[in-house]
Amino acid sequence: MAVSSVAVTAPAAPDGAYLLLDVAGTPCALPRAAAGEILPLPDLFRPPSCGAWLAGFLNLGGDAVPVVDLAQLLGLRDAAPEPGLHAHIVLGRDRALAYLVDRVTDLVTVAADAFRPVDPARSLNGCVAAAIARGDRLVHALDPDRLLSAEERMRVEAAARAAAARLAALPAA
For the chain, first and last CA: distance in Å? Predict the structure, then answer.
């Protein structure tokens, strides 16, 4: 019987720092290096053309930043939740994309031996890069570069351009 092995490559976190997230009750983690800021949930502009997992657009200094609802994207929740008291937006380092999560719960340093292999075929587009052992539970380590497919990324960018054009047509506040 052949034994296959799955190489574990931790998502890009050279310092081992990860943001721990609550995503519809599922523990997940993003490399700290991928996050620019953590923001409380603001009012989002949500045009009717947004898909189910595109929560809307954040007006960030006049730039329309698309906000992806991670729970809906990952199939953990069917409908948009009522905004929770602790909901957060994790703004990407490049400020081109943000993620809506139920809560950012912690910032931790993860030792290399805490990573467990995950077969890339077991998650859409290989977005779960590894599992992180934390006590008696495993946390899904997400690869931000694989959360959206190339086609999804192109469509989100097109929607962001349309939202920016709408925003630019309004007088400054």
Answer: 68
CA atoms of 19 and 27, how far apart (whole Å): 10
Sequence-distant (≥ 6) Cβ neighbours of residue 4 within 8 angstroms:
none
Domains of the chain and CATH, by start = 17-168 (2.40.50.180)
> What is d(CA 39, CA 87) in angstroms, rounded to the nearest whole number?
9
What is the identity of the amino acid at 92? G
- Count CB-CB contacts under 10 A for residue 154: 11
Check: pTM over 0.90? Answer yes or no: no
145-162: per-residue pLDDT in tens?
Answer: 999 999 999 999 999 998
pLDDT digits (tens, 9 = 90+) for 91-103: 999 999 999 999 9
| DSSP tag of 120 | G
Strand order in the sheet with 35-40: 35-40, 88-92, 98-101, 63-69, 54-60
Residue in the block written with tokens 């603001």: 42
Q: Which two tokens stand for residue 151?
A: 């086609």
Torsion, Cα of 16, 122, 37, 153 (10° steps)? 130
What is d(CA 164, CA 167) in angstroms, rounded to the nearest whole number?
5
For 111, other C-beta atoms within 10 Å of its C-beta total 10
